[in-house]
Amino acid sequence: MTRLAPISARELQTILSRLGFRLVRQKGSHALWQHDDGRVTIVPVHRGEDIGRGLLRQISRDVGIDLEEFARLRNR
């Protein structure tokens, strides 16, 4: 089992872009990312704060990739 480390919102948004997601809208500090096939996730964008493990796990479920794939994309 892969253990995720917290990452910044900017790094997460880069990963989502690589996966084919695009920023649909942002209201306040919450950005809505959507894939052409209909998958959707919300990314909280708070300056100076990382996105924790639990939320990363939920986002990986939302986008339909496993934790190993998520870690591989992060290290790319």
List keywords for this structure.
76 residues; 3-stranded antiparallel sheet; alpha+beta; two-stranded antiparallel ribbon; Metal Transport, Frataxin, Chain A; 3 helices; single chain
Briefly characterize the structure:
With 76 residues, the protein is an alpha+beta fold.
Please give a structural write-up.
By secondary structure, the protein is of the alpha+beta class. The chain has a single domain (7-74), classed as Metal Transport, Frataxin, Chain A (2-Layer Sandwich). 38% of the residues lie in helices and 26% in strands. The protein contains three helices and five strands; from the N terminus they run βαββββαα. The chain has helices at residues 9-18, 53-63, 67-74; strands at 7-8, 22-27, 30-34, 40-44, 50-51. The strands form two sheets. Strands 2-3-4 form a three-stranded antiparallel β-sheet. Strand 2 and strand 3 form a beta hairpin. The chain is globular. The chain starts with 6 loop residues before the first strand and ends with a helix. 13% of the residues are buried. The mean pLDDT is 92.
